[in-house]
Amino acid sequence: MLMVVLFHVGGMRHDTFFYCLSRCGNVGVDVFLYLSGIGLWFSWGKIIGKKHAAPTATGTRPAPRNASGRRGKRLLQAIAGSPYATFLRRRYVRVYPAWLIVAAAYYLPRCLDGRASAADTALSIAVNWGFWQHDELTFWFIPAIMALYTVAPAYIELIRRHAECRWMPVATMVLCVLVQYWAPLHSVVGHLEIFFSRIPIFLIGINTGLLVEQRRHIGRAGWWMLIGMLAVCTLACVNFEDGLRGRFPLFLERMVYIPLTVSMALLMARALAHAPAWAGSVLAFIGGISLEIYLIHAQFVLLPLQPLRLGYWPTALAVVAISAAPAWLLHKGISLLTRKIA
């Protein structure tokens, strides 16, 4: 999330190294998706573990004559209590209430002053329809992550049963190429490149969750490889942003983000294992409200600060500091309201 803030602040000279790094800050989205994939593996495992451990009734008994209505009711209850429904409920309860509040605060004023119709406003608040229709990037991450949450259990079960399907992220990388260059597909979903190019890292995160569960370890040679990978990918991304912006399809840089994300996340995990306790606590706090910071910082904090021209780093620090308080309040308030649902 801190990387995304640095990306949104922008404003430094194009010929500076730190400007190029800040332009690569949207890799923070990839890091979030990668870590989410790891977490979803364990979340799904806990849900199906509880369901499998639940006692089941034995034997049968004759159904009463008026059982048709009861069967329908039991079917609905079974669907609502299924592992998939439980998984989606927990994921959506974490994302959707915060999204509804912030989206209403952003889109309703635009409707009231005539900039958007009531129908468009309702669709924007419900599912961010503008993103799916014409690539409106305001809050684009929210519909994207909810779409990925929807298919995550199917992929987890697929690789549980068929180890060969762990190569699926490679296939989705080819899909990104087709979205960009195959005219029939590009004409339909080409505007959603920013979404399709994030599918591989999300699936790789789920694959990594399996490796973490199996307690796989990285040897010394592996760590050196990750350091080299991080350096090479950083060099490539900085080179993309230093003078090449607009001269290459963006999905190409996002493909470089994949090894950049994996190497950076694993090396940061290694570094945090030796970091002071207070550093871990601060990062855990920011991580816990990262969704709310994402929703609040760009439109409600950064835009009012930009006319002040504080400079890059003061603006970035101010955005994080100011966004943290309302983000925490929003997170706490929603947690209290949705505790029984989740």
How would you portray this structure in words?
This protein is 77% helix and 0% strand. It is an all-alpha fold and 342 residues long. The chain has a domain at 275-342. Helix 2 (17-23) crosses helix 13 (220-241) and helix 5 runs antiparallel to helix 6 (118-127). It starts with a helix and ends with a helix. Residues 52-61 have low confidence and may be disordered.
SS field, number of helical segments: 17
Broad shape: globular
String of helices and strands: HHHHHHHHHHHHHHHHH
Q: How is the quaternary structure best described?
A: single chain
Largest sheet: none
Radius of gyration: 22 Å
Give the integer mean of the pLDDT values: 86
Distance between the termini: 24 Å
How many runs of DSSP E, i.e. beta strands? Answer: 0
> What proportion strand?
under 5%
Q: State the low-pLDDT regions, or none.
A: 52-61
Q: Roughly what percent helix? A: over 70%
Structural class: mainly alpha
Transmembrane segments: 16-42, 92-108, 137-155, 167-183, 195-212, 224-244, 256-273, 282-305, 311-330
GO biological process, one term: polysaccharide biosynthetic process
Keywords: Acyltransferase, Membrane, Transferase, Transmembrane, Transmembrane helix
GO cellular component, one term: membrane
Question: What characteristics describe this protein?
Answer:
single chain, mainly alpha, 17 helices, 77% helix, 0% strand, globular, transferase, transmembrane, Acyl_transf_3_dom, acyltransferase activity, transferring groups other than amino-acyl groups, acyltransferase
